[in-house]
Every structure is written in C-alpha cells, then in structure tokens.
Design brief:
globular; about 20% strand; disordered N terminus; 7-stranded mixed sheet; Methionyl-trna Synthetase, domain 2; single chain; 4-stranded parallel sheet; alpha+beta; about 950 residues; 32 strands
C-alpha cells in the first residue's frame, strides 16, 4: 500500500558521500556475498576434515517448492531465523551445517508442462535458479556444495534405492523391527516359519511363493480405496480434495474407488511412531497431532457370522455394548458387500430399506455410485443418515439374533475394518440411522439420573446384557469389557486387540513429473530392479497429461502418462535368469518421497557409493548419549511451518526407522528438535464487487472530523481485510523489492524484530524504515559519512557505557540460542541509543563488540564495519563477545519507601549499603520528612532488595 513517506532510495543533493542507504547497502551486500562464495566461507567440514573437531550443529529448514512466482516476504521468515542462529553458533565455536535444497517434483510444474508443452525439468530448473538468486540476495549462510533437488537424477537414484530397500523388507512383529525379505524366504524354506496352509514352501508354485512373500513386504500392491478423479485422470491425495468432494484443481467430481495402488506398511510402525515422540524435542501440539493421527485404541475384534460368506469382522472399543447391536453397517467399498448381497429381497423387507430398487444388487450399486461422489469429510459430517439394506443378515454372537446388514456412507473403509456393529442406544449416529430406518434401539448402559436425551454415551452399569452363559448386568464399563472379551475369545468369536486410526500409506500417483519406481512386472507380479540398474530415469514423452475422462464417469481406469512411452515401458532385462521382457511400473512416486530422506543426502551429496557415508551420518545425526541415554539422534534443529506437523514428519520418521532397522543409519529419528515458525500476514483489499485489488496500489486517506482512515484504489473506496500473504489476495510483497528499497540487512532485521519467531505477525512496509534507521545510526556512530573513515577511538569507555555494553552482551547471548531475535535486536538498539545519546566517539572495544553482536542479524554491514575496523578476516568465525560479570552487578539499588503501606517516595543507595544506611537515607528524603510531619516513626522495616516500610 502506498504511503506519503519518501522511499529509502530517494537522494538529495547534499547527501554525504558515505551515507548508509539502500544504494550503499546493495554494494556492500553484493561485495560480501561474492566474497563468501569465493572464499567458501560457509563450507561445513565433514568428519576427519579440518574444523570437524569442533562441536557440530546440524541446522535445517523445511525445503521449499520452487514455484514460478518466486519468494514473497513471508517465505524467508524461517530461513532468516535459522541463518541468525547458524551465524551465532559459528561465532561460539561450532561446526555448523546449514544446507538448502528444493522439493522440486510435483503437480505445478506438470500442469505448466501440460498447458505449454515446456518440459517440467526446464520450468523447474529455471524456478530453482530464481530461488537461489533470491536466497543469495538475503545473505543466507548456506553450504552451497550440499544443495540438492529431488529432481536431480543422482538424488532420485537414491530415492529409488531406499524404496527398493523398503520393498525388499518385511516387519517381524516378534523382533519388533524390519528385516530383509531374504531372511523371511529362508525361514519359509527351512520350515522354521510355516506357510499359511501348512504345505512345505518348496511344494508351492512360483506364483504362490511370490504371492506369499509379496503379502509381507513393507511396500506392496493392494486394492485400496482412493480418490479417483476422472476429470483429471489421476488419483488424488486427501489434501487435494475439497470438503465438497471435488478436486482442488479444476473443481471436478472425485469418487471413492478401489484401485490397485502401491502402499507402504507404515501401520507396522504405529507403536514406535507414537512411543518415540517422547524422545524428541518437539512442540507438544505437534506431538498431540501425530498421536491423534496414529489413533491408538484398545478394544475387541468381533466376528459376526453371515450365511454363505466369510464372517464380518468389526473392531469396537465398546464390546460391553454388544447386546445392544441391532444392525450392522458396511462401508460402500467393503469387499464383502458383493459376497453377501442376495439376488432378491428377503420376504417382509421394509420398503424404507430398499432405496426403491427392485433387487438388493441394484440398490447397492446405485447407493455406491452416489456415495462415491462424496468426500470422506462430507460423509462423516453429513447429518442426514442414508443407506440401503444389502439383503443379508448377520448373527450377533452374544444373543444369536439375526440383525440386518446395511451399506451406509457414514462408515469409512479407511477406519477400523470398514464395518461397524450399530448400537443406537449408545451412539448418536447409530440412533439417527435407526430412527430413520425403523430399527430397534436397546440400551445396554443405564443412563445417569435425569438423562432425557437420545443415545447415552456416558458411564454406568450394564443393563439388558445377559444370556444363559454370561451376564454383564450391573458391571461397570471397564469390567464388562474384560468379561465379554474373555468370553468371546473362549468361543472363538473375537479377541482383544489394539487398533489404530493410522492407515497404510498410499504411495503412487498417475503423473509424469515424479520419481519412477525401480520396479518391473512379470507374469507373477512386481520385481525390484537390482542396485546396478539404478537409476530408472524418466523417459521423454510428448504428452505430460494423464488420460482424462468424462468428469462424471466413475467407472474408468487411470492411464498414467508413462504408460504411453511404450519403448520405455516394455524392456528386455537380465535379472539373473537370462534375458526376458518385462513391463515397467508406470505410476510415479508421490512428492513426499524425496522429502522423506533429503536431510541425509545433505550430509554427503557427492557420494556415488552410498546415499550417505556411515561416518557422515554418525557425525551429523548420530545419537548423543551424553545429552540423554534416550537420545534418538537426528537433525539438531528443524524449522518449518506447522502445516507439515503430521504427514511429512510422520512419513520421514517411518522411512528413517526402516533405514535404522536395516542398519543403514545409526540414529532412530530424523529430527531431534523441531521448531514451528509463525507466518507473515498482510492487509488485502477488495472492491465493491468483492474482487481483490493490488495492495501496493491502494492509497490510505485521512478520516474526516477525526474519524477512521479510509482506503481507495483508482479513486474508488475499497475494504481492508487481514490474512495470509498470497498471489490470490494480490497482497504479495517480494524480498527483491525490499532489498532494492532498503537493503537485505534492513529486511532481515525487520523480519526478526517484528515479533517472536513462533508467532505470526503483520507485514507493514512503512515500518521497515525503523530497522533501517537503526543500521544508519550504527554506521554514523562508527563511520564518518563524509570521508568514510572510522571514528572509533582507543581507550576505555566510561563506566555507564561499559555496563550497558556487558548488559547487552549477556542478554543477546541468552536470546540468540533461544531464537528470541526480537528481544536481541531490542537490546542492540538500546545499546546503540546510549552511544548516540552520549555523542562522543565510540571506543574500539564497544564498537567491535556491537558489530560482532549485530553480525547474525545484519551480516553484510557487520562484515563491512569489521573490515573498516582493521580486520582482514571475515567475522563469520570471530569469537562472540563474552560478558564480564563485574559489570552485570548493579552499583546502586532503588528502594520504594512506604509510609503506613502507601508509597510516598523512592531512594537510591549504593548496592552494598547496610540496613542502617538505607534507613538513614529513607528518613532523610524530603518527601518522607514532610509525610512524617516531625513525628518519630514507630517502626522502620527494610525488606532487603525490595522496599523500606515506615510505620508512623
């Protein structure tokens, strides 16, 4: 938004030749950025190299996706914050690794390719170059040798290698860890592990052996319910589907369908993923989100028999309510639906149950089609309960009653078993459904006195819960659960189990711009390519778009772009048993793949033999048992937005734990400490149509008669609103603009000074001038603006300045490692104000200490001043100032003086004054003499360090 203030680049004829302004700042900043690059200033040595003997610190940002629009001023908040800490740690004697890379596969580049015909790599590499230029302009102290992009062929070679390791592994529940699949084969071969049907492994056919082993792999193919979008021709992640059940991109209908997809068996690690959260230094809110996502709960698996089909298995956390189960519900996608649905309606079927269809199959098919149009969120939140009877009945194991089985969309295949026993007396959703369909309601828990609602979900004694063999009546909920689980287990109708909300990870996309799977197919299923045949490089294709269909046609099949590269898909290979023709996997990995392990590649990006050397991994992220016996290892500090609190972090932890189990890494967790930075928010403006207008073109107008200010655009009134900065709101401010107008150091200081790192804060361009003025005052205090010569002097500073200096040093030393950059900046401003107010030349000790303390926040001007002060070496590794304790002790103390409990005056005395001296000073104070009116006080009480209390 425009203002009446002049820009920082405006010049005056009488401007001093060496004034620190935007023009000078830009020259200084480019000079030092070039020197840092030329001198390799921020190259972090690996173990065994000079400098690696220092205490190490691995500092990392969540790496960005390089979009075509580049960075806006909200993006660098975390990047600058980590840079400040890294610079401080280098000055306090640490070997700091601070890398930056790019999460460069993904949908936006592919979309652009579809629209323009430009290869996604061309667009992506241009965007990365733009980002690198912007990040360099900010003076970020990254080690450029270690930068990686997930689209680099040498990088995704190792992504494929890790996928191959996961594919070639299984989870041994007895050992509680992943093991190589070859060891599972050996156990089947030697008979230590029996096959499911008891036949010797050698008697199984090749197809049977392959199917058996594939069913144990950590990466496997499964028929899974997915979000299929015919209009886009691809499967979408849940995050890409709107609450209305449509695609975020294009607003096409999205259908839930069972399709063959690659899955990751992350559920095998559910307990470890939950339990190990106690070992990492993460925000409690993030730990809670992960635990909730994993959703560990204890209950029972209960089997309800169905004539002519496998039993329906249900997981319930309330097996004590089994006697109240009066019907069952299957998710529309449940695999048993077709098996149990009869050809005709049973005699006497309630018409409300049929959906008006002549047969059960037609009713179920029509309902499935309708349900597939709704998102999971919509299905869960829909208050109107819909469903149809399958025509089948199941037997309740506790009372032998046959209860109807329905299909309804409020049951999801992704939760539990995809089937529920409906207990309307104890569940409101079941109550609503039972009421709508005229089904029985039986309470099994005695409601509390005075309860007059519908479904009762509270505690109480069991009622209506007995048969000739067992009675729960009168038991409390916990005891009733234990009794019924034991009874079910004795009869073979169920058992106590632990269940998780966490589902296995859908790991394939029907897209071009992603990592190819290192998988080929023969007649029996998938085969991992040997390591020496990696990488599998993306082929060149003419059409980057998946095949699309009529947006409303749910019964279509994905056709990924890679499937059209027939010369690449059909390949002759020798995998150990002679040349054969195989078919390559034509799905690609999701964008999550590269971000699951990139922090490890930073450690050793040029290694062609391993994804990371053992020495580098152990040095940078290995366990530190001196820190804690339970230390899991990992990156020392990982900084990023809370929007990645669950999925990215959970997926990374899963991959890392597999690598740990297989002996490829020594650390058990990827990120030892996590910090979530806040966001930059900004004003946006809408016109009378509700359309956003460019914020930088809006003019603020003074309010008439002292009223509030107004805003106009092109002379027309607009409405001001507040929100996240973004292109759609037309309120983006770029760091390029800020660096041009004020310099990078001013921009850095402004972002760090405006609030705590973990808090969101408003962006206000007009306020950037404040940090610029601070830097200008520092420059003037040390440099003559007319000659460019330093004005510092030798000798000791006055005691008040020395005390102010050491107070600032002590405070800044506390603030930097705690990421309290706003308060660190405030302390530096306070010290510089004292120097400005004094007006005399600044002593060298004070000047050099001030410059060194400024360096993490404003490194370019600090380097320039350091050089002007006579130093030939960069200050990047100069020792950070130490506070002298002598100057932190106050030389005087101020005491409030109360007369009969009311403060009447204050007195300042030497810090070492005794009680008698304090009393004398208090009684001699003019205001106290007047308050006493010549009378002798009855008591004078000195509370050490706090106050003097006089009683008349």
């Amino acid at each position: 938004m425009s203002t009446e203030t002049s820009t920082a680049t405006e010049q005056r004829a009488d401007r001093p030749a060496y004034r620190y302004d935007a023009e000078m700042a830009t020259r200084i900043e480019r000079k030092w950025q070039d020197l840092w690059e030329r001198e390799e200033t921020f190259h972090a040595p690996n173990p065994g190299e000079p400098g690696s003997e220092k205490p190490k610190y691995y500092l990392m940002d969540m790496f960005p996706y390089p979009s075509g629009s580049g960075l806006h001023v909200g993006h660098p908040l975390g990047f600058i914050g980590t840079d400040v800490l890294g610079r401080y740690l280098r000055m306090t004697g640490h070997n700091v690794l601070h890398p930056m890379g790019f999460d460069a596969f993904g949908l936006p580049a592919e979309q652009y390719a579809v629209q323009t015909g430009t290869h996604p790599r061309t667009t992506t590499e241009a965007n990365i170059a733009r980002y690198r230029e912007q990040l360099r302009q900010l003076g970020l102290a990254h080690d450029p040798r270690r930068s990686v992009s997930t689209t680099d062929i040498e990088f995704y070679r190792w992504t494929q290698w890790i996928f191959r390791e996961i594919f070639e592994s299984w989870y041994d529940t007895d050992a509680g860890r992943a093991r190589p699949i070859s060891e599972l084969c050996s156990e089947f071969e030697d008979g230590t592990r029996p096959t499911p049907d008891g036949r010797p492994y050698a008697e199984l056919s090749e197809a049977e052996r392959r199917s058996l082993i594939d069913g144990h792999r950590l990466a496997y193919i499964s028929e899974a319910p997915v979000n299929w979008c015919p209009g886009l021709g691809t499967v979408l992640a849940n995050e890409e589907v709107t609450p209305e059940g449509r695609s975020e991109r294009g607003n096409y209908p999205v259908f839930r369908r069972n399709l063959k997809q690659w899955m990751m068996r992350i559920t095998a690690y559910a307990d470890r993923l939950a339990d190990d959260l106690d070992r990492v230094e993460w925000p409690d809110s993030v730990k809670s989100m992960q635990r909730n996502w994993i959703g560990r709960s204890e209950g029972a698996q209960v089997r309800f028999g169905v004539a002519g089909a496998d039993p329906i298995e249900v997981f319930t956390t309330r097996p004590d309510t089994l006697f109240g189960a009066t019907y069952m519900v299957l998710a529309p996608e449940h695999p048993l639906v077709d098996a149990i649905t009869p050809a005709v309606w049973p005699e006497g079927t309630d018409e409300r149950w049929t959906g008006g269809a002549p047969t059960p199959a037609e009713a179920v098919d029509a309902y499935r089609t309708e349900a597939a149009r709704r998102s999971e969120l919509e299905r869960q939140e829909n208050k109107k309960k819909t469903g149809v009877f399958t025509g089948a009945y199941a037997t309740n194991p506790v009372n032998g009653q046959d209860i109807p089985v329905f299909v309804a969309d409020y049951v999801l295949m992704g939760y539990g078993t995809g089937a529920i026993m409906a207990v309307p007396g104890q569940d409101q959703r079941d109550w609503d459904f039972a009421t709508a369909f005229g089904l029985p309601i039986v309470r099994t828990v005695q409601p509390s006195e005075g309860f007059d609602g519908e479904a009762y979900t509270g505690d109480g004694p069991a009622i209506n819960s007995s048969n000739p063999e067992i009675s729960l009546d009168g038991l409390g909920v916990d005891e009733a659960k234990r009794v019924i689980i034991d009874w079910l287990a004795e009869r073979g109708d169920g058992e106590g189990v632990v269940q998780y909300k966490l589902r296995d990870w859908l790991f394939s996309r029907q897209r071009y711009w992603g990592e190819p799977f290192p998988i080929v197919w023969d007649e029996h299923g998938p085969i991992a390519l040997p390591e020496d045949q990696l990488p599998v490089v993306l082929p060149e294709v003419d059409d980057y778009a998946p095949k699309t269909y009529d947006a409303d046609d749910a019964n279509t099949e994905p056709e990924p772009p890679l499937s059209r590269a027939t010369d690449w898909v059909n390949v002759e290979l020798d995998l150990g048993d002679g040349p054969k023709v195989y078919r390559r996997e034509t799905n690609t990995m999701p964008q999550w793949a590269g971000s699951c392990w990139y922090y490890l590649r930073y450690l050793d990006p040029e290694n062609t033999e391993r994804f990371v050397s053992k020495a580098a991994e152990e040095y940078w992220v290995g366990k530190d048992l001196e820190r804690s016996p339970q230390d899991p290892g990992g990156v020392d500090l990982y900084v990023g937005g809370v929007e990645h609190a669950v999925l990215h972090l959970l997926y990374s932890r899963f991959w890392h734990k597999v690598l740990y189990d297989l002996g490829h890494v020594t650390s058990e967790e990827p990120f030892r400490k996590l910090f979530n930075q806040g966001y930059i928010q900004a004003w946006a403006y809408t016109d009378s149509r509700g359309m956003y207008v460019p914020a930088e073109e809006v003019v603020e107008t003074a309010g008439g008669d002292g009223g509030p200010a107004g805003f106009t655009w092109n002379g027309e009134p607009v409405t001001q609103e507040y929100g996240k900065m973004g292109k759609s709101l037309k309120n983006v401010v770029t760091p390029d603009e800020m660096c041009d107008r004020y310099g990078a150091d001013t921009f850095r200081l402004y972002e760090m000074y405006t609030g705590p790192m973990d808090a969101s804060r408003p962006w206000s361009t007009r306020d950037v001038v404040g940090p610029q003025r601070f830097l200008q005052r520092v420059w003037r205090n040390l440099v003559d603006e007319n000659t460019g010569e330093v004005t510092v002097v030798d000798g000791e500073a006055p005691e008040d300045i020395t005390r102010a200096l050491h107070k600032a040093i002590a405070g800044v030393r506390e603030d930097y490692p705690a990421l309290h950059y706003n308060t660190a900046a405030a302390k530096l401003i306070e010290l510089n104000n004292a120097l400005t107010k004094r007006g005399a030349p600044v002593e060298r000790e004070v000047a050099e200490s001030l410059v060194l303390m400024m360096a993490p926040l404003a490194p370019h001007i600090a380097e320039e001043l350091w050089q002007k002060l006579g130093h030939d070496e960069t200050l990047a590794y100069a020792p950070f100032p130490e506070a002298d304790e002598r100057f932190l002790v106050a030389d005087t103390v101020e005491f409030p003086i109360q007369v009969n409990g009311k403060v009447r005056s204050r007195v300042t005395v030497p810090a070492d004054a005794g009680q008698d001296d304090i009393k004398a000073a208090a009684l001699a104070d003019e205001k106290i003499v007047a308050a006493l009116e010549g009378a002798e006080p009855k008591k004078v009480i000195v509370v050490p360090g706090r106050l003097v209390n006089i009683v008349r």
